[in-house]
Structure prediction request, 247 residues.
Amino acid sequence: MKITILTIFPEMFDGFLNTSIIKKARLKNIVEINVADFRQYTLDKHNRVDEYPFGGGQGMVLMCQPLLDCLNDVRSEKSHVILMNPSGKTFDQPKAHQLLDYEDIVIICGHYEGYDARISDYVDEEISIGDYILTGGELGAMVVTDAITRLVDGVISADSTRDETFENGLLEYPQYTKPVEYDGKKVPDVLLSGHHENIRKYRLYESLKKTYLYRRDLLEKRDFTDEERKMLEKIKEEINDKEEDNS
Prediction:
């Protein structure tokens, strides 16, 4: 897979590209990640890539020419072009999996007040990482790139991602490691039992419970198994009993 990021602050990606899993994926040549500075394409004699908006208003707006000239230079017939935009569709794990279908992805990072609206005509989709405003699209581009890269075959073990939060539509169950007891808090006995079926049931129960407590919206979309349905009823009783005891 190839990912090309368009930005006017390429230095922001130095640490990102040379750390942890992203670095390993690049060194193994599993994923190619390039950063293009579209300021280098401006025709403005002052090296500017932004201007005041027509009609007045606050802030500066990115101009079409430098950004689109850069895009035309880096894109291929196979490129899927993404514009990082707060008004775009919210990025999630299913979208990360969907983007794996593309061999060549181009991600455009904005800055300042926004983009010339005509830029949207040259992209395939617009993506947001959440309902908040950042200084620019660079952090969002890193989030999308990281989420995609770790799913590419060979980057990390498939077993490492299978039970992660959102992979199966639930929040991930609690994890523990050594020591068995710390500050009076012990690892649940079932995880030390070696009984794989009981461990599976425990983890599923805790995953459902965590999701019910913090992200019930995920459960609204779920097609429950009989086992999950029984567990969820037990979870609701457990939580209701606890709330009554505390009232």
The first strand starts at residue 2 and ends at 7. Strands lie at 2-7, 32-37, 50-51, 61-62, 79-90, 104-108, 114-115, 125-128, 181-182, 185-186. The two ends are 55 Å apart (CA to CA).
